[in-house]
Amino acid sequence: MIIKIYNAYIIDPFTDKEAVADIVVENGIISRLIFKSQALSLKPDTKPSALNIKPDLIEIDARGLYVFPGLIDMHAHLREPGYEYKETIRTGTLAAVKGGFTSVCCMANTNPVNDNPEVTYYILAKANEEGNCDVYPIGAITKGLKGEELSEMAMLRQAGCVAFSDDGMPVMNAMIMRRALEYSKAVGAPIISHCEDLFLSENGAMNEGKLSFYMGLKGIPRAAEEVMVARDIILCKHFHAPLHIAHVSTKGSVDLIKKAKEEGVPVTAETCPHYFSLTEEAVRDYNTNAKVNPPLRTEQDREAIKEALKEAVVDVIATDHAPHSLDDKNTPFQEAANGISGLETALALSLKLVHDKVLTLRQLIEKFTVNPANILKINKSGIKEKAEADLIVVDINRQWTVKKEEFVSMGKNTPFDGWQLKGKVLMTVKGRKFFNMWQEDK
Amino acid sequence: MKDLIGIKELSRQDIEEILNTAKAFKEVLQRDIKKVPTLRGKTAINLFFEPSTRTRTSFELAEKRLSLDVLNFSVSTSSVVKGETLYDTLKTIEAYNVDYIVIRHPCSGAAKFVANHTPACVINAGDGTNEHPTQALLDAFSILEIKGRLDGLKIAIVGDIIHSRVARSNLYLLSKFDTEIRFVGPPTVVPGYAPDNVKIFYDLKEGIKDSDVIMLLRIQLERQNAAFIPSLKEYFHVWGVKKDVFSYIKDDAIIMHPGPMNRGVEISTEVADSSRSIILRQVTNGIATRMAVIYLLTPREA
């Protein structure tokens, strides 16, 4: 199988290339890459793109389209093993490639928990057999996510885990967190912290404020996140271990991370598309599809998150893809599971930041590729000759409508159903695998 | 209107219609035969996921006085945790073809969830800390009976406001009239995020001094274990309404309580049993008000 992509405007932060090129992929390897111009000012022209599929040859005239390295999602839930009724590695990675992701890091809160190498091996073997892209497991910081004893982090690392997190179950004991951070230095993989003081958030269901009072729902104050961000930054500073803060949702957290970075503390951070696309208003009608943890916050927080992305205080956009079954969401709000099925909408929601001139396209792609790769030390070579093909073809102007019933993820839980978005992945090439979304929604 | 989910969804006109109808039903309740044949042949189910005696009894009496057939379905929270979802419970009940569902549930928004999933008329009898609309309506009815108006009154709500659906429904109702609303209590249970039209007082005397109406809320005894209040003794000492208030409240101020009250916590015996207290009148008015709500939700032919 040969894939030829002509006139693609490549933006590749791995190789630091941004130019028009022709790409030839043979048997999953980039055999030729010919740059037509190095001029950065060269913008894609407006002649229509075209796709031509023959049995052994796919030809794409990519005029007006972009080619990026396959995106990396450093925070997803693939639910396997244990919760296959919510998602499987097969369906989750299919949702990933459809959304432009060729690498997915899956959180440890499976059943059994990924706190021992056997679970890691199982995930990797399943991904190898049935997966549609690269899967990088994240191991648990503590055994059973209980926050009491460290898991066998070195063995988990050797088995293939790229980071450690008790995501969703914050390590409340500062001493255990200290030990985890210290130990992670020897292991060579960062700690990813879900920052939430469980005493402050105590059974809360949404952001605490006027709206939570109005709806009679127990709120989660912003302080619940910020207290833990502050604690973890202090630990990171004192014990000099790499710390990555997951799904930042508040202005206060942004301020703390900014200050820490200015002081040279080795901290990085991510946010998710819903935190810069929505506010707490999305739950006003007890919409369980907008129930996430941390909860959607206010307009002031949303603006701060956008500013933090712009100023590189927040390094990464991750999906926190959290698929759930219909039953998990078809309940009163308080009882509903937290999470949004995010892989299939993340890029388009994030491209709005480019259309609105918050970020340049290059900055956005960095947050989806080179930044997570650096944090997790995932070895990616980008788009270059002799490397494995790991790229996506994107029309950043294609309009489409989100239809949850068309999600390939088993999780149809999205607050974006019916939204008009601008920007679509037309094709994902991952080694010998090729996913064509060219004709969808046209 | 198919359902009564909260006061939030009602207009001032809706509220006035309910209160006028309640007045007519109160006259029925004073007759020798206290029952009307209005809804004969229709069925109501009281679906209670939380223990409740007085609200359930009040609804049951209201339903029976409208000649409804009544089913009581009490579901202990633990049995729900064991298996059946609210959705499935609801579908089971729907299969009985009932006309009215009165629901109490520990989750805010549960009544709305039920209303969204059934063609029956749904009445919220308390959902989590969200709303208890018939309580606010019966409170308004009781105030009207004595004061003749709601507009122009100063109303102090005293106690655990954050956890009180009664306080929320009263707030939304009174906000639709020209009233001055005050929240009074310790800062741990008075919301920092109160609406703009509410005045907040941490001092009992200041908060209730010029009020026409003093609404007390029940202090849930477990609150002292969750650090909201140091002790019930201290609460009574600082925010409990005791007979010394008679020296500084208005002569015609009325004292209300949704019940069940804790004597010696939010209210002293002298105050509870005084002529200012209209607590028992509220109970009587609850039946008339609930009859009005059920009656007005009847799907009537054009």
TrEMBL record, chain A:
Enzyme class: hydrolase
Keywords assigned: Hydrolase, Metal-binding, Pyrimidine biosynthesis, Zinc
Any single biological process term in GO: 'de novo' UMP biosynthetic process
Cofactor entry: Zn(2+)
Keyword Zinc: yes
Keyword Zinc in record: yes
Catalytic center residues: 320
GO cellular component: cytoplasm
EC number of this enzyme: 3.5.2.3
Alphabetized GO MF terms: allantoinase activity; dihydroorotase activity; zinc ion binding
Pathway: Pyrimidine metabolism; UMP biosynthesis via de novo pathway; (S)-dihydroorotate from bicarbonate: step 3/3
Binding site for Zn(2+) 1: 75, 77, 167, 320
Positions with a binding annotation for substrate: 77-79, 109, 293, 324
Catalytic reactions of this protein: (S)-dihydroorotate + H2O = N-carbamoyl-L-aspartate + H(+)
Limits of the Dihydroorotase catalytic domain: 67-252
InterPro entries, sorted: DHOase (IPR004722), DHOase/Allantoinase_Hydrolase (IPR050138), DHOase_cat (IPR024403), Dihydroorotase_CS (IPR002195), Metal-dep_hydrolase_composite (IPR011059), Metal_Hydrolase (IPR032466)
Binding sites annotated in the UniProt record for Zn(2+) 2: 167, 194, 247
Cofactor note: Binds 2 Zn(2+) ions per subunit.
One Pfam entry name: DHOase
Function: Catalyzes the reversible cyclization of carbamoyl aspartate to dihydroorotate.
NCBIfam families in UniProt: pyrC_multi (TIGR00857)
Family note: Belongs to the metallo-dependent hydrolases superfamily. DHOase family. Class I DHOase subfamily.
Listed name of the protein: Dihydroorotase
UniProtKB/TrEMBL annotation, chain B:
Protein's job: Catalyzes the condensation of carbamoyl phosphate and aspartate to form carbamoyl aspartate and inorganic phosphate, the committed step in the de novo pyrimidine nucleotide biosynthesis pathway.
A molecular function (GO) term: amino acid binding
Alphabetical UniProt keywords: Pyrimidine biosynthesis, Transferase
SUBUNIT field: Heterododecamer (2C3:3R2) of six catalytic PyrB chains organized as two trimers (C3), and six regulatory PyrI chains organized as three dimers (R2).
Family annotation (HAMAP family): Asp_carb_tr
Swiss-Prot/TrEMBL GO biological process terms: 'de novo' pyrimidine nucleobase biosynthetic process; 'de novo' UMP biosynthetic process; amino acid metabolic process
Any matching Pfam family: OTCace_N
Aspartate/ornithine carbamoyltransferase carbamoyl-P binding domain sequence ranges: 2-145
Residues the entry annotates as binding carbamoyl phosphate: 54-55, 104, 132, 135, 259-260
Domain of life: Bacteria
Binding of L-aspartate, residues: 82, 165, 218
NCBIfam families recorded: asp_carb_tr, PRK00856.1
Aspartate/ornithine carbamoyltransferase Asp/Orn-binding domain segment(s): 151-296
GO cellular component: a single term: cytosol
Pathway: Pyrimidine metabolism; UMP biosynthesis via de novo pathway; (S)-dihydroorotate from bicarbonate: step 2/3
PANTHER family per record: ASPARTATE CARBAMOYLTRANSFERASE (PTHR45753:SF6), ORNITHINE CARBAMOYLTRANSFERASE, MITOCHONDRIAL (PTHR45753)
Family to which this protein belongs: Belongs to the aspartate/ornithine carbamoyltransferase superfamily. ATCase family.
Protein name: Aspartate carbamoyltransferase
Entry EC number(s): 2.1.3.2
Reaction(s) this enzyme catalyzes, per UniProt: carbamoyl phosphate + L-aspartate = N-carbamoyl-L-aspartate + phosphate + H(+)
Native species: Thermodesulfovibrio autotrophicus
